[in-house]
Fold this sequence. Notes:
Layout: E1 2-6, E2 9-16, E3 23-30, E4 33-44, E5 47-57, E6 60-61, E7 65-67, E8 77-84, E9 88-92, E10 98-102, E11 110-117, E12 119-126
Antiparallel strand pairs: 1-11, 2-8, 2-12, 3-4, 3-11, 4-5, 5-6, 5-7, 8-9, 9-10
Pfam family, one: Gal-bind_lectin
Protein name: Galectin
GO molecular function: lactose binding; laminin binding
Amino acid sequence: MPLSTWLLGVKVRGEVAPDAKSFVLNLGKDSNNVCLHFNPRFDIHGDINTIVCNSKDGGAWGTEQRESVFPFQPGSVAEVCISFDQADLTIKLPDGYTFKFPNRLDLEAINYLAAEGDFKIKCVAFE
Length: 127
């Protein structure tokens, strides 16, 4: 979904499917240049209740970063807030826990947001 360029942040609120295995939020320049691949995994690919983050540069995946804090519940509403600067993306989870992921692509702006998997977006707000 093409978006107008944003610099400060985005809030994504949606419903997690009752039988959720995983979902993905991708943010970046386009589908081959993703500065944040945000992938909460309930039970898939050998990961249970783990958030996997990565980046994709020119179609090539980087090194995964795993977070063990997992406030997502199947069948619930969840909100993720992502703020952005040239050094890092800061991800705020539904329980208020915050962590950083490096802006490996050194993007100055983000104009691409895509969602996949067991998460139905209800609202996207730009800050």
